[in-house]
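Data availability (excerpt). All sequences and predicted token strings are deposited with the supplementary files. A representative entry, Putative hydantoinase B/oxoprolinase, is shown inline so that the format can be inspected without opening the archive.
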Amino acid sequence: MQAATRPRWSIGVDMGGTFIDVVAAGSDGRLLSLKHPREAGKLAEPVLAAIDRLCAEHGIAPGEVARIVHGSTVVTNLLLEQNAPPIAVITTSGLRDVLTLARQDRRELYEPVIAPATPDAVLFPAHLRFEVDGRIDAQGREVAPLALEGFDGTAAAIAEAGVRAVAVCLLFSHRNARHELQLRALLRARCPQLLVSLSSEVDPKPREFERFLTTALDAYSKPLISDYLQALATALAGRGLPEPFLMRSEGGTGAWRDVAQRPVSLAMSGPCAALQGVAASLREGAGLPPSLLTIDVGGTSTDIGLVEDGRPAFAESLQCGALALRLRCADVESLSVGGGSLAEVLAGGALRLGPRSQGAWPGPAAYGLGGDRATLTDALCVLGRLPAMLAGGVALARDAAEAALARDVSGPLGISSGDAALAVVRTAASAMAEALKMRSFQRGLDPADTVLVAVGGGGAQHAAEVAELAGIRQVRVLPHAGVVAALGMLCALPADTVERSCEWAFDEAGLERAQRLAVELAPAAGAGRVRWSVALCDAGQEFPIDVAWHPASDTLDVLLQRFSARHARLRGAAPPSTAVQLRVLRAVFEQALPRPAPFAEDVAAPAAGAWQGLPDAGEGPRALFAAMTTVWVPQGWRWRRLGDDSLALGAVAMGDRA
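Structure token line:
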């Protein structure tokens, strides 16, 4: 009798602030998942521990693992905390202070003292910014050759400073990268261990400050990310496991060695993976509108995302704390309200939730790890809307949560602990609903025309209440909502994005130039699929709009109509498109999704069992304690389990209520 063939596995690992989420997809159609508590101050070790645990619990041998895809908040946290050593910057003569001067935008009109636009003293202090003579003009022509007479002194000063990374940011290098490439070659020859980021590779688009800042932050991230990924890859290889692929912010995955060359692309990898997981999970969903909103509630923040026509929506910028970073990434709005957000009563008697947070350490008082301040999680615990033990194995102490809430909220307000907890939860729901409505209206969407998809460990806990406040009639909860980012990593295609700055009129001649450029770029696609887009704007506009482009079939009129329609949706009435300009041509080279993969068509996946032990339908108020998430069904709402194993939540019609 022939022995049964052992399944092959793909493993996705998402490292958040509190838990490591792991999902394994088997060639037999099985999906396995777990949440593993993250240890404070460690990077590679908890990821390895989570993988080891999943393999041990399910008997997966190292030789049965075909691929590992990873994403994390490491880069995001680094840019927020800014606790790494500074870097050096080399710029064109006269541009040494571009990173300090920034754009002089004033977000707070009435602040008497304006903070510096960029924390240059921490990231790239003045004594580590160097100039070099030589000039490329706006058309990409060399006006003056690179002057290298004193460059040995610059290289020596960088070496003596002990910095590990340098950003090379030269004027108009997005039009001609020759001088930047020369400097990298010289730096590598003189300082072989130095990590170098070129603006012509990191962000090859116009606007000097934005390009310089993105490149400088890429260099700032490189030492930590290079060390982290090298340690992770080495440890995985020692276990007989494959080297990891990394989830990128702009979508798609890449080999860790390639991603380490541009680590800034990891800044929004987790939210992008979550949107990818939603898109893949609901791709066959009948009756869903073309636009879906997502809500992902974590320990420190709530992410509001958008899925359009079965694909994650993308933006061209990222707000990371006080830093406005030009980076193509998932179109996600982050709100500083999460499970660890602190609740406090202000002097005037108002209740405030966040932006300060207990984080994962010491965490909410209910965690029993030393935190003693009242948080949103403590309020949920007091209301009985959380299980005695969370999915990651964290036991909740209700008495500690009640004590913290009594001291910080119910005592100052003179109300019961139950009313105080309810006030905290309602404050959170109101803030989330306002952020969701604002995001919808900014994208030309009416919330009433969408469906809200709850993901993450806490999304389903608040989704129905938030939807009701925002005017959304239906909520979906995925069976793997608690680990959807790790799931999305396994659904993302290996991909590489190439951008070219164009800056010419988009007429018939301009379209022909774009087609010739596309032919030059096409060989890099290999045997995979290519998705093209063009960034267009009217003459005089500062910021272009991304428009899908099918080179084989799209005429100029079709593209102009597509641009006008998108312009009208995003910015209101579109002006007459008589002088449209092409700013950027973008190509996304996608490969076939490696197997095994979730939702593979050739494998009949068994039931996920996410809602085991729970009724298939019912009415609130009720907390549904599932394996990976908790779903709160409020008064006046009902739930039912659908054929794809997701839960549909909707308001009960007035005539149907008892």
